[in-house]
Design brief:
The chain has 157 residues and is of the alpha/beta class. The protein has a single domain, classed as Glycosidases (TIM Barrel, Alpha-Beta Barrel). 46% of the residues lie in helices and 17% in strands. It has helices at residues 3-15, 57-72, 84-110, 130-146; strands at 20-24, 76-82, 116-124, 152-156. The radius of gyration is 15 Å and the shape is globular.
């Protein structure tokens, strides 16, 4: 959503006493977003489609903006770094090494942002599959290796 739409929505949630929102860091058509993972106005999350080692600065500035808007309204974001329904295939194609590096990127970028709870999953149905679990854990461990400030959680099946 646009920054103005986000501000309107979060102000509305604040009026109702809501203090935490679940937000997917990466969205696609599995979570009511664009199939290619771009924002509503066409900003892709990665400069090379499907390559998580190429975070797009413009996309993550938008994430920064959303975190700032949320903080302005006293809202913490349960920020899902690995939305597994729509993005697990991409993470697996990139492998654990790139997944860990992406996690470190996120942890470094957001370690001092106070209104985050890191989350992994989204009805993560295949967590018992070692290959699936490995890439999700790689992101989580990558974040945690440089961000000791936030709690982490998951949402399994």
């Amino acid at each position: 959503m646009s920054k103005s739409d986000a501000a309107f929505y979060m102000a509305n949630r604040q009026r109702y006493g809501i203090t935490t929102l679940w937000v997917e860091l990466l969205c696609n058509d599995k979570t009511a977003g664009n199939a290619d993972g771009t924002t509503f106005d066409g900003i892709p999350p990665f400069t090379t489609a499907g390559d998580i080692s190429t975070p797009n600065p413009a996309y993550f500035r938008r994430v920064d903006d959303m975190l700032t808007i949320a903080a302005t309204h006293g809202i913490t974001l349960l920020l899902d770094a690995v939305e597994t329904d729509g993005w697990l295939t991409t993470y697996k194609a990139n492998g654990s090494g790139k997944a860990a590096a992406f996690g470190r990127y996120l942890g470094q970028r957001y370690r001092d942002v106070p209104n985050i709870i890191w989350m992994y999953g989204n009805d993560f149905q295949t967590w018992e599959n070692p290959a699936d679990d490995a890439v999700v854990l790689a992101v989580a461990k990558g974040i945690r290796s440089v961000d000791p400030n936030h709690i982490h959680t998951t949402e399994l099946n």
